[in-house]
Specification:
Number of helices: 4
Helix content: 25-40%
CATH class: Alpha Beta
Strand content: 15-25%
CATH topology: Aminopeptidase
Number of domains: 1
Number of strands: 5
Structural class: alpha+beta
Low-confidence stretches: 9-22, 137-145
Largest sheet: 5 strands, mixed
Shape: globular
CATH superfamily: Gcn5-related N-acetyltransferase (GNAT)
């Protein structure tokens, strides 16, 4: 994947003075978390996602450009969602929320259990109670769902 990167994984014991889920997060992830708080577009952009098992990434592609991804780790039937990255020029279009929704829907359809460490996913689930209910009560802690 070229052009975007995933932030280093941070300790859940660290706090975020800006109030973004109790964790220190990168400026890039802060922008994506803030995007989750805006109303969803009624005209969701067209793009595809594919699971790249060799890199443990869900890759999002639009018009031939890999614009984003979700870093994950999978063990048995549990998927740990670690980080989300979207190229800066693709932010603010609702793509981060759409990618988050599609990844969660896909994992749910596969019957996978999900653990959320990514602040972008945590923010999305907090903003969309239907996903919190689907993933379980553990989402309130922000560490597992």
């Amino acid at each position: 994947m070229t052009g975007f990167h995933f932030p280093p994984q941070l300790s859940p014991d660290e706090s975020d003075p800006a109030g973004h889920g109790g964790f220190h997060i990168s400026l890039d992830q802060r922008a994506l978390v803030d995007e989750m708080r805006t109303p969803a577009s009624t005209d969701e952009a067209s793009f595809s996602i594919a699971r790249d098992e060799s890199r443990d990434v869900f890759v999002a592609t639009k018009d031939g450009v890999e614009f984003g991804g979700v870093l994950f780790d999978e063990k048995n039937d549990r998927v740990l969602l670690l980080a989300t990255s979207i190229l800066p020029e693709y932010r603010g279009m609702g793509l981060a929320a759409a990618l988050t929704r599609r990844v969660l829907d896909s994992l749910h359809a596969e019957g996978k259990r999900v653990t959320v460490r990514c602040p972008v996913f945590r923010s999305f689930v907090q903003q969309h109670p239907e996903y919190a209910a689907r993933l379980g009560a553990q989402v309130q802690a922000g560490r597992r769902c």
